[in-house]
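Hi Y.,

Following your request, here is the sequence exactly as I used it, all 216 residues.
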Amino acid sequence: MRLTVLLAATFALIPGLCLAQQASAIVEDVQAEAVAVSQFDYVAPGQVIDLGSEGTLTLGYLSSCERERIAGGQVTVGKDQSTVVGGSVKRLKIVCDGGSLQLSPDQSQQSLTVVFRDFDPSKNKNLPKPQTVIYGTSPVVSVGAAGAAINIKRIDRSDQPIDLVLPNATVDLATQGIELAPGGLYQAKAMGRGIIFKIDTSASGGGPIVGRLLRF
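Below is the corresponding structure, written out as tokens. Let me know if you'd prefer a different format.
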């Protein structure tokens, strides 16, 4: 009996695990009744979202950097863009680091462990290349679990590190009053992992989420 219950629970988790691995877009905003997605959720190809006649949805595609504003209708998530039936969609190509955003959790873990060490700008002259570029001075940090502690440290010059406990699995650092320096090279560490990222030299403030996404 216990084995049956355990197997049932395991299979119930499979769709969620597959979704995390196959995610093609992130929900930037949603205004609709009785939909199964909310802001910062990841969505996968084939997933259907019914907005009714008046609902709205904004998606940021991780690979294609397409940003869609959808009004009404039935939305089927694709790999690079959505199919919308019975509604309207406006698309805008934005600047984002699509190559790094679409890594699966396993690929991300493998690449992050390579740089999981402390860099000291006063000692380390050969600084690493960034794994991703953020096109806004306030990143949106996605760690996958609420209550995670994150440390952000500038490594191309000496600066005061930032230590923060994230109230949610994904947090817009703009809401925490945190703004990083354009052109700065940073190391972020959370959940036993680390990532090197750079703030684009022309970055300012916020902007589309998919262009500011720091995904662990």
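The two ends are 37 Å apart (CA to CA).

Thanks again,
Q.
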